[in-house]
Amino acid sequence: MTGSTSYEISILNSDSEHYLYGFATPSGNFKIVEHSLIETRDERKVYNLGFGDFNAETGQVIDDEVFNRGDGRIILNTVLSTIPLFFDQNPSDALIVQGSDSRDDFPDKCRLTCRKSCTERCKKQHQRIRIYCKFLDKNFNSLVKTYIFFGLSESKTLDFEQYIPGKEYKSVLIYKKK
Length: 178
Fold this sequence. Notes:
It holds the Pfam family DUF6934. InterPro entries: DUF6934 (IPR053865). This protein is of the alpha+beta class. The chain has one domain (10-176). It contains four helices and nine strands. The protein has helices at residues 72-80, 82-89, 106-111, 127-143; strands spanning 10-15, 18-24, 30-41, 44-55, 60-62, 94-98, 147-152, 161-162, 171-176. Strands 1, 2, 3, 4, 5, 6, 7, 8 and 9 form a nine-stranded mixed sheet that branches. The two termini are 17 Å apart. The relative contact order is 0.14. The mean pLDDT is 84.
């Protein structure tokens, strides 16, 4: 589920509720990709795909900052490369992808330091899920051979629908085809 270039990942932890992958970038930063159990839906475990910089001093994953070091495409490919690994170990489970910038409190936090001068709608909100969806839209025909995708839109109902390329979603739910 990746492009041609990605960083080498290491599996740091693997148990039934938590899968942790790590990789280093040439700039010396250590990144973490985390698949953590969040709920059971339709008798399947649903895991959240989390990602961020690892702060060695605090042991925390920083998932709400953007560090533009010119390797965004490689990092995206590396994060996405963990999805087939996850489904190799959990073929009956699901993975949800959503951005930390999709949280309800994101616009208020963003406005504190943002230079875009947004008024009602924060232009940076949902930026990360748009990047994932853009990748999915571009590669949809090949990916649907292996995976089933559902999207959650901004509507008031919290029902996932069959993923439609080009439509805006707040999160994407992925199942592996049997």
